[in-house]
Amino acid sequence: MSYKSKRNLISMVVGVLLIIAYTIYAFGKASPAPDDLKTWAVALLIFIGISVVVTIVIHILFHIGLAVGMAVKEKENDDKKVERIIESSMYEDERDKLINLKSSHIGSACAGVGFVAGLIALALGISAVVVLHIIAGAFAVGSIIEGCVGIYLDERGVRNG
């Protein structure tokens, strides 16, 4: 599995764990009242902040682990060669840019469909808190789908056209 696939997989696992944590919070005893839109919005903002911080920390640890793993694997080589190997695995070429473009397009489409579904639900008279969760869930699922598509295209290959 390539470096980029591993990075996407780590991001997806973190995303799923954060969705599970939010779901436990939302259905737990400490959750806000069902119609308290302001408190739900604050809770979602807090979880978004937590997800950003956790993702940054996990990626830093992933990069450190990658560097240590490469150094151990290439222990008979000098430090400069190990640095070149690490840099070459992180290098982004045109293929990687195309994969990122296609996967972000699919992830954004999923998030957009969820946003429209939330607006339709709001127009049908469904609670604003439910709509807030539909939209947040659509963005979370879109991010996970984006990671899946990125891994799939990275491992299978991608064609331009």
Architecture overview:
This protein is an all-alpha fold. The protein has helices at 3-27, 37-73, 79-90, 94-123, 128-156. α1 runs antiparallel to α2 (37-73) and α1 (3-27) packs antiparallel against α5 (128-156). The radius of gyration is 20 Å and the shape is elongated. The model has no long low-confidence stretch (mean pLDDT 87).
Global mean pLDDT: 87
Per DSSP, what share of the residues sits in E-state strands of 2 or more residues?
under 5%
Any low-confidence stretches, pLDDT <50, length ≥5? none
Work out the helix count: 5
How many runs of DSSP E, i.e. beta strands? 0
Helicity range = over 70%
What is the overall silhouette?
Answer: elongated
